[in-house]
Amino acid sequence: MRLADFILEKTEPILVEWETFARSVWAGAGMDPLELRDHAADILRATAWDMKSAQSATQQSDKSKGEGLACAGSDRVDGASDVHAVGRINSGFDLLAVVAEYRALRASVIRLWRESQPTSDLRDLEDLTRFNESIDQSLTEAVRSYTQRVDRSRQMFLAILGHDLRNPLQSIMMSADALPHGAETDPLVSGAASRISASVTSMARMINDLLDFTGIGLGAAMPLSPAVMDLRCLCREVIDEMRAAHPTRTFRFEPQGEFTGVWDAPRLRQMVSNLLGNDVQHGDVDGPIDLSISTDGAEVRLAVHNEGLEIPQDVLPMIFDPLVRLSSPQSQQQRRPGSIGLGLYIVREIAKAHGGDIEVDSSAEAGTVFTVRFPRRRAALLEMPIPLRTRECA
Question: DSSP state, 380?
Fold first, then answer.
């Protein structure tokens, strides 16, 4: 008997072994056989029909690369595996248990088929190859569906959490602001109010970074509200804010050229603040932090330089990835309150949203410089009516 025919004829004995194994890896209290067998019969039938369908050498190659829909039965395999993965999430199976199920299924089918002592057929090797291909495809689709659903749920939870935390934080901030006015003569109350305000500001920064991260992770493009603005004025304001927040540090600003353009001012403020804050955390405490902007007319170049320790070469390729932090003793001591390792990631996303990009160069001799390049006005915005939001800047 051909292997595909064996699977269709002996589905029930195979399902009995599937159920037994699922029971051994499931942490659930109830042992409902229907739940243990969740879509297993559909997977087996889809595998058998996939093996029976015609498949060219090109389709086989595509299928081995996980490109799917390589033959007539392939879509059934993907569909059954997708539904099964979602069902396993709902039942409390972890991903390792799902992978183990497929490993056990493969072993059970081959063992039961061998024990049936089928008549030798020159096509047995082809049948085994097609069976393994189909199981691999099914496993790949199950893992993809499982991880996507878990990641989507995790990001949705973080997004909801971030939104829901804003209201109580706002209430705390308002209460802290009101405290000194009611007890101006009590230094203990004033000091406590200042500490509360500083802590809430740090928490608000973390929540904003978290919301940006989850929004981008859920597939949404970073939202922009472009307007005509003066980048030189914005950078000077951020520099002044950093000087006030870090009076012992030296900040230098060097603009070269004219910097009126169509950008999202709050996002660029966030980008510049994150870059300067990163240098405060990782740069030499005795060295200056330099912010420079220049333009060739069509493109703006914004660079932030510090004289801190060289960034290790193995870290550079992933420095803009989310939740990546340098672990040097100096950076640990200077870590900015409200930082959760998303600052540089958000900087990159802001640059990309403006049609630009960011790069970093670091050496022991020259220090570290982050360079952002983005167009003065994105092509996609050329036909949009742009509001004017400029003001005089010192």
Answer: G
Contact (Cβ atoms closer than 8 angstroms) between residue 98 and residue 40: no
- pTM of the predicted structure, to 2 decimals: 0.54
Residue 304: pLDDT over 90 = yes
Q: What is the pLDDT of residue 381?
A: 46
Give mean pLDDT, residues 45-60. 77
Residue whose C-alpha is closest to residue 25's, from 104, 140, 107: 104
* Residue tagged 């500001």 (tokens): 201
Spatial separation of the C-alpha atoms in residues 301 and 393, rounded to whole Å: 20
* The CATH number fitting domain 3-153, selected from 1.10.490.70, 3.40.640.10, 1.10.10.410, 3.10.20.340: 1.10.490.70
Radius of gyration of the chain (CA): 29
CATH topology of domain 227-381: Heat Shock Protein 90 (3.30.565)
Q: Tell me which residue of 238, 240, 308 sits closest to 270, measured CA to CA.
A: 238
CA–CA distance, 371 with 349 (Å, rounded to integer): 14
